[in-house]
Give the backbone structure.
Amino acid sequence: MIRTEHVDGVRLLRHRDVQEHTDVTLTFAVGARDETLRTVGVAHAVEHLVMSTVRQLPIQIEAEVDLTTTSFAASGSPARVGEFLNRLCAALADPPVDRLAVEAGVLAAEDGWAAHPMAAFLLFARYGAAGPGLTWLEGAGYDGLTAEHVASFARKWFVPGNAVLQVSGPLPDGLELRLPQGPAPSREYPVGRLLDGPSAVGYGIPGGAVLLTLPSDDAARVPMLAMNVLENRIEEQCRHVAGHSYVVDSQAVGRDFIIFAEAREGTEEAVARAVAEALTDLAAHGPSEEELTLAVARLEESLATTDRELASAFGVTMRQLMGEPPLAPIDVVLAKQVRPADIAAVLRAALPSAIGYAEHEALDAWKAHGFHPEAHCRVVPELPAGKVYKPSLTARTFFKDARSLVLVQTEQGLAVRDEDGVHEIRWDEVAGVMRTDGPTVVLGTNGCAIPVDPQMFRGSGAALDELARRTDPGLWFDESAFTRDQDDH
């Protein structure tokens, strides 16, 4: 039985390992999905800034930000690990924002992703410029973050009630986890866009992927086993049989599960086809007995090599912090009773809302299996009525695509017709407004982007004035200099 222990309000979980050195992991229930478009990258910036205060300690240290969590880990003597934790928490309470400009350059050079690009794009297709979908976007860039963005993010999320400390070995003496004081944060995540039947979206990342929204895991972990079987079959075909992929992996956030396979040049359609075939075949017929036996054996082995009681306590605590319902404890006996038909049923139920991914030119691989191509953002049937701005004569003369463009300003927001269809962003859907050397780009929580450029659309300066009147000034930002530099090269 795990005792309920706290240090300065932080939940403490003690591993049973008997060892002389100390290993710690301090995990916060906050990640990239908790940012806004204006502050994309702020969690990563906080991580870099506070780690700069402990980088000279002579022990092994590391930190990571993903979609849902931020974690800090250290391994060494109890005294040094205690010093690491105390310094780290003090820095979270008072981030060294004077280093922000320097760390912005380091972060831009690192070019890290909170999710694999294919997973990020699929989450953007599902959620737009909000919640998990933000990991696809750059926002204002690291150079657009301010000291107040960093400080306010740290004050809200890096509080004792949003943290769990795991310790193996001796607990350091004199721990002072003086984190920012405040209530445990509340959170509300967007409801994903549900399309009419299984759909597929395209972009330029070489590979194939699929996003499935699954029910919560039961005691037998049928959804988990289904994903394990699907990922294993995709890896078998794309890597070990055909030799098309090296990276075949998965990522989960909430009830969304993404499996992706990278493709070497020239194999993009074959990889997308392999992902589509694996999914639809398993949904129709289920796995072989050998595939299912392997998935159950992997589950059983993972349980045998971990402290189940402690892992369960950590999982329960993190789900509580994230506002997610508890899961039933894993029952290996029930897992061994799962049949291929049970796996097929889970995947069939997920198909109607599934989103497949392929390079644009390889989308036929999904169409052949009943997935219809969709734009990555919401497209409406027709232009709404309102004040119309048409391309200037110069734009129509020199830019062929400009001839079909139309910008409309309505009482509710803005709309534009382009080659993909009609995109509309209501005033209350504006996630951010980016000023560039050319157009001002309006970005919607629905994933749409509308350029407003007086040089392109005659008279649209009036639309910019209305945009400024209708939106919070805090949503406006300049295009990142790092992005401009990349574009210039």
Summary: The longest helix spans residues 222-241. The CA atoms of residues 392 and 458 lie 5 Å apart. The radius of gyration is 25 Å.
